[in-house]
Design goal:
CATH class of the largest domain: Alpha Beta
Radius of gyration: 32 Å
Bound molecules: adenosine-5'-triphosphate, magnesium ion
Strand content: 5-15%
Distance between the termini: 60 Å
């Protein structure tokens, strides 16, 4: 289609021409008064010109002929809306909803009417309907009133005053403090047993760029993006993220995604924005998102229309759209990377996906040495113990040691004679503990075999072999 002709432009934009249309329409209607489509067109034109009374009268006439005419009802709702007769708008739109004949526009004026009548809960319901149909819907009045119903986050204020809020989180304005947690970890890479290639990747990908920001800039290398760790439970994802923070003496902020997902529309995004805000005010820091797959799950679950918003918010925060992420290392962890939308893996986002396998034998020895440090024990034959720890995760090893210690305590309390922990104690404990990673591999195997696009799960296959 070419450009509009100048004549068309004039009919579109020249009100005078429209007034002529009105005259023509009136004449046509005079000669066929029961032509309802014509009357509806005329009423629409009245509305456009702000001739509310004329529009009202015309719609009423249509309804006199046809009391169920949907278009006339919609028109009347518009008329009432402009007159500020909000309860009438609500009644009409509710009827349209019950007849399943409702348009987005009708829902919008209904939600606005409810807001103006201060029926916020009902407005919220209608608003959710709108978002269900159109996740990208935006409207200033509705967004302001309904997207943050109770979480009042005042961006204009600074958060410097600390008071009984030692981290300067501004808890009283933010999500509850159980939702996330900031600390200065006292562990570093030396406390992480094995995982050498993982440490190397983390060093190269996020630590070096942070420490040598100027050098990277000089070579025009863009900094940013995060690391997503995945693997079976208890194998050290959270632990190594924490150690990363300790390694560079940075703050560690751990966020469970399910904690920030909120049933209130708009609250999840606010929580998300707030956390990035806290991170930006506490650089350098490692911002660690646990259970990232919880986001993926809400995206496919279209019943939860706010899911999309929070994902988009998360992605744009990752991208540093509204504010720089300088000094923030972003890490994520998941047991179910296959639930994650590919949008997460674009450059600048989680562009490194790293498998955190169960510890190999060397790592197991190191992990055990770390766990056993400072405990009363004989000289321990770690190599012998780990023969009994097939499929054990780091967490399993910890559980094994706990079992051994409990057993020992029970004996010591009976005899009253302190005794060190022995190799045999640990082996007995290992036999009683059930390895926890096997189940995960059963699931993971299917994805690695059948849904291994661009080979992202090759590591799993390699490991299984
Ligand atoms: N490489 C390791 N070196 C030392 N300790 C380890 C190592 N791996 C795991 N651990 C121990 O195991 C515990 C559990 O690990 P962590 O909580 O990091 O697992 P995870 O992979 O995050 O598990 P989940 O998927 O359940 O969140 C850690 O607190 C740590 O004590
Ligand atoms: Mg974890």
């Amino acid at each position: 289609m070419a450009f509009q002709s100048s004549k068309n432009k004039r009919t579109l934009f020249n009100p005078y021409m429209n007034h002529q249309d009105i005259e023509a329409l009136k004449e046509a209607i005079a000669s066929s008064p029961d032509n309802l489509p014509l009357r509806l067109i005329l009423a629409g034109k009245y509305l456009n010109f702000g001739m509310i009374e004329e529009a009202d009268a015309e719609y009423q006439v249509v309804l006199d002929y046809d009391k169920d005419n949907i278009k006339a009802k919609e028109g009347l709702a518009e008329v009432y809306f402009r007159r500020g007769k909000y309860s009438a708008v609500i009644i009409i739109v509710e009827e349209l909803i019950s007849r399943q004949k409702v348009t987005e526009r009708m829902l919008v004026i209904c939600a606005k009417s409810l807001v103006r009548e201060k029926s916020l809960e009902e407005a919220q319901e209608i608003y959710e309907k709108i978002l269900d149909h159109n996740p990208d819907f935006e409207d200033k009045e509705l967004d302001e009133n309904l997207r943050m119903p109770s979480f009042d986050f005042d961006e204009g204020e600074d958060f410097e005053d600390e008071g009984d809020d030692p981290f300067g989180f501004g808890f009283e304005r933010g999500p509850e403090d159980k939702d996330f947690f900031m600390e200065k970890p006292d562990i570093s890479f030396k406390d992480v047993g094995g995982m050498e290639s993982l440490k190397e990747e983390i060093d190269l990908k996020i630590i070096k760029p942070l420490e040598n920001a100027e050098l990277y800039a000089a070579y025009g290398k863009k900094i940013g993006g995060g690391i997503l760790l995945y693997g079976p439970p208890g194998c050290g994802k959270t632990y190594i993220a924490k150690a990363t923070a300790g390694q560079i003496n940075a703050n560690f902020i751990a966020v469970g995604i399910s904690d920030i997902l909120d049933m209130w529309i708009g609250r999840s995004e606010k929580n998300m924005g707030y956390i990035f805000d806290v991170a930006r005010r506490n650089t350098p820091c490692v911002l660690f998102f646990d259970e990232v797959d919880a986001l993926g799950a809400s995206r496919s679950d279209m019943k939860n229309s706010s899911g999309r918003h929070v994902i988009n918010q998360f992605l744009s925060e990752l991208d540093g759209v509204s504010a720089s992420n300088e000094g923030i290392l972003i890490m994520g962890a998941t047991n179910a990377p296959w639930h994650l939308d590919t949008a997460f893996r674009r450059p600048g986002r989680f562009d490194r996906i790293l498998f955190v396998p169960p510890p190999d034998n060397l790592s197991k020895v190191k992990i055990l040495e770390i766990i056993m440090k400072g405990k009363p024990m004989e000289k321990i034959d770690y190599k012998k113990i780990i023969e009994h720890t097939n499929h054990f995760s780091g967490a399993d090893l910890k559980a094994m040691v706990d079992i051994a210690i409990e057993d020992k305590l029970r004996i010591v309390m009976k005899t009253g004679i302190p005794e060190p922990i022995t190799t045999t104690d640990l082996i007995q404990a290992a036999k009683r503990h059930h390895a926890s990673t096997r189940e995960w591999f059963n699931t993971a195997k299917n994805y690695a075999v059948f849904a291994n696009e661009s080979g992202i799960y090759d590591e799993i296959l390699k490991y299984i072999k």
